[in-house]
């Protein structure tokens, strides 16, 4: 029977191998807890965060946004980033929930496009609106604060960049932000 810790390592190498092979799982568990998403969604949440960071300058620009209303009165807004080709989709659900998520240009696939086109035909077109991001800044390591101008109205929004959830939105005067 081994008496010292290093003797245990020599006698039972599977314990050491098991410990080191579990490190990625522990990292994912920690990330799940730290960013507040289910364990199975950590990779998708981290990808959303990377897309927000990659497209941070793109969302500052005024751009044409296509807007449509679904049969269930959800409002869908879609805009493309010219630099990267990534697409931001914002959904204002009829029940008040709001979410904004990025679709990576590299991850677009034919079945996904076919589904998006099929869903678009089910919507009632609303025409184009222009959305201008007046200012934005990182509120913390998870949330992006931004002031957006939609038509003649302005809103302060707080976006969870991992889940895409717009956790706060309130109408404000259309004035420049004070950093």
Features:
179 residues, alpha+beta, 8-stranded antiparallel β-sheet, 5 helices, 35% strand
What does this structure look like?
- This protein has 179 residues and is an alpha+beta fold.
- The chain has a domain at 48-172.
- The protein is 30% helix and 35% strand.
- The chain has 5 helices and 8 strands.
- An 8-stranded antiparallel beta sheet has the order 4-3-2-1-5-6-7-8.
- A hairpin with a 6-residue loop joins strand 2 (75-80) and strand 3 (87-92).
Taking the alpha carbons of the first and last residues, their distance comes to 65 Å
Number of helices: 5
Low-confidence spans? none
Q: Write the element-wise H/E pattern from the N-terminal end onward.
A: HHHHEEEEHEEEE
Biggest sheet record: 8 strands, antiparallel
What would you call the structural class? alpha+beta
**What gross morphology would you assign?**
elongated
Beta-strand proportion = 35-45%
Main sheet strand line-up: 4-3-2-1-5-6-7-8
Portion of residues within helices? 25-40%
The overall pLDDT, averaged over residues, is 81
Total strand segments? 8
């Amino acid at each position: 029977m081994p008496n010292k810790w290093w003797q245990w390592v020599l006698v039972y190498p599977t314990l050491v191998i098991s410990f080191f092979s579990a490190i990625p799982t522990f990292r994912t568990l920690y990330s799940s807890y730290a960013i507040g998403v289910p364990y199975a969604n950590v990779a998708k949440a981290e990808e959303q965060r990377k897309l927000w960071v990659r497209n941070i300058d793109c969302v500052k620009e005024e751009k044409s946004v296509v807007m449509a209303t679904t049969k269930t009165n959800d409002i869908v807004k879609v805009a493309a980033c010219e630099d990267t080709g990534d697409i931001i989709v914002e959904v204002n659900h009829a029940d008040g929930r709001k979410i904004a998520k990025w679709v990576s240009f590299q991850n677009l696939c034919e079945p996904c496009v076919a589904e998006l086109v099929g869903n678009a035909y089910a919507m009632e077109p609303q025409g184009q609106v222009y959305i201008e991001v007046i200012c934005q800044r990182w509120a913390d390591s998870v949330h992006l604060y931004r002031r957006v101008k939609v038509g003649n109205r302005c809103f302060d929004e707080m976006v969870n960049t991992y889940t895409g959830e717009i956790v706060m939105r309130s109408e404000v005067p259309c004035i420049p932000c004070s950093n």
